[in-house]
Specification:
The protein contains three helices and 21 strands. By secondary structure, it is mainly beta. It folds into three domains: 40 residues; 132 residues; 74 residues, no CATH class. Strands 6, 7, 8, 9, 10, 11, 12, 14, 17, 18, 19 and 21 form a twelve-stranded mixed sheet that branches. The longest helix is centred in the first third of the chain and has 10 residues. The protein starts with a strand and ends with a strand.
Amino acid sequence: MQVNVPLPIKYLGVDYAAGAQTISDSIALELLLLGLATRVAPLPLGWDKGLAANLAAIGVTTKTMWASGALFWIPAGDGGANGLLFSGGGTGNFTLSAAVVSGFTIPQGWVYLTANAGGLSNPAGWYYFTMSDDTNGKIYTTTYDSTSGVVPVFPAAPVEMAFTSATRLTSTTSEIQMFQTPFDFASQVGINGSIEVLESLYGNVLSSTKNLRIRAGSYQLHELAPTTSPQSEALAAITNAGSLAKQLITRWAASVGNSPSPTLSNNYRAANLAAETTLNFSLRVAATTDHVAAVVRKITATYGG
């Protein structure tokens, strides 16, 4: 396995120089678990097959599958008077017709641009951005591949985009994947285990729906779906009920700990997790006059055999 060793170390009597190293899988995993090395590429699916059960036998049952403060944002843009306006002139600058919400001054994150935004002939995708206040910011050339399976890395020396047209963004109402993380549901969750997702959602207060969705492959497991009160912190739990094909889910459009409800809302699902290899997260707006942004802070898997 290839890993990166930040500083020279000696482990089990062997010296490892700083930099990328190709090390036996068993030693590489020990260095990763000890925090002495980092991944160069995503670990292959099934690298820990059997590990969850072995750890459970000694009382260790929960594993962190994702931890990040990266914000993903689909901005409003109706091609007219509303949303994100490119300054043009060969810069990456933009202005919003109104703040997403007061105080939305994001230090850094990833913004979704549709193809040919600002006359630049760019492909659609997630681009690195910063904001100087809650209505002004800058977009850079660094992109994030939402299918990579790794946590996004913020660039140390970003290069700004060179938008040529001072035009309004025409955004999208399609569901857009933020990221995915590899999962071996059998070995990492088990037939009675749980996945817990800690997430934050932001948006403007127009009455159309903003969605943050969780899918196993293409099968939808949970979603947040606020309208006029989108600023929220949520915890969603997905628990297998004696089978990899039967789940008990936190009520849709709700969080663990919400007020009791007289009805169910997709609390029981039947995703065949044995056939899936990723957990996918996506955003969607119902109208291009709406913003939606989210941070998936942490995903944990608790094994239950």
